[in-house]
Write a structure and sequence with these properties.
With 331 residues, the chain is α+β, with helices and mostly antiparallel strands. 45% of the residues lie in helices and 20% in strands. The protein is globular and about 60 Å long. This is GHMP kinase.
Length: 331
Amino acid sequence: MIIETRAYARAGLLGNPSDGFFGKTISISVRNFGASISLYESPELHIEAQPQDVSTFKSIFHLRDSVSMLGYNGGIPLIKAGIKKFGDYCENEGIRLPNRNFTVRYRSSIPRQVGMSGSSAIIVALFRALMQFYKVEIPLEILPQLVMVTETEELGITAGLQDRVIQCYEGCVYMDFDKEMIQEKGHGRYERIDPALLPNLYVAYNTNLSKVSGKVHSDVRTRYDRGEQEVMDVLNQIAGKAEQGKQALLEGRAHDLHQLMNENFDLRCKIYNVPESNKRLINAARSCGASAKFAGSGGTIIGIYHSDDMLNQLFVELKKYGARVIKPFVV
């Protein structure tokens, strides 16, 4: 029997980037793009290489473009790290795994390095497949932490909980990363929000504007660790936008998110060095009458549109900046 599992792209609706700073966020899963795992029993444990894992290139420029889009290692290190962390978890919990091996392969349609969390989606899908294969139950609130430490501890990737929470829970989720609760229990307070309450959303991405999240966050992290007051104040205000957004959605005031999302991005610009190319994409969307903010660390934006005419205008205007516009499918 072949086990098939999936995990989806994600977009930060409000509050990001405060998830790594014990803040509050709202995120959605974007089912337009996903990562899938196929896993079946075999005599030996085997990880199938995919085209992005190969080391043969047509030219030096082919290698350059491949590394720019996919990184240096492809998905194999993610799979290895995920299997190891799953084994560590089972051992720590006293779970004896049967003597069974498997072959695993992965696929992903998530655009890389534009803030849609393609790497963590592969690991989430892998954990789901391993849980099925070995009949192991990992509590849902714990799973995001396992996915995160797979990346941070095993691969040295800078990562926060937000992306992993929404990819494990799916739909639309409000997250309160209360510091004391995380330190005590290893997870925050996660509250599902009915996606039917969401306004009309668009997502636009341009892979040429991609940024590696760790590099984007490094300066603010240093200033945060120093206790710099401006950074602390702005991050608290950004977290507040998520809390206000949750209340607006639950009270049927989805239109309030338009201003909250714009304010979210404007606050971000006070402490982050946002490239002009990314600002131009934001301003182009706002010139159409839509709201606009980063959906992650750069390369992808998200906002609210008010009519089909405005959505069509977004398609036209953002295409001028090399961006593709989609309506996120949230379930």
